[in-house]
Amino acid sequence: MPNITITLTDTQMKGLEYCAYSPQEWAENAVTERARIAIDEICILLMTYCNENSIAIAVGKDAQVTQAYDLGIVDAAANIQAALEVEKSE
Question: What is the pLDDT of residues 74-84, one digit of tens each?
Fold first, then answer.
């Protein structure tokens, strides 16, 4: 399972300690909630695409996200940004 690690300054940590009972739990919740929202968005895009193109939809959210990437319906934001930068430089 991938890990995301961030480094905070002492002042940033103090700021989080001021507003969150557990900065670690707060950060984990923020990231997992944003990921959940993105997964739901991807599944909607996949369902729309598959319905419009008579393609069977994979079963389960993990499989649906994989299917959306495999079909090229979605791509990583970094890949999209890199493609845009190449396009701009041409």
Answer: 999 999 999 99
Confidence (pTM): 0.86
Domain positions in the chain are 10-89
Residue 26, Cα to own-chain centre: how many angstroms?
A: 18
CA distance 43 to 60: 10
Which residue reads 């389960």 in tokens?
A: 60
Long-range contacts, 66-71 (Cβ 8 Å, 24+): 68/42, 68/43, 71/46
- Length of the chain equals 90
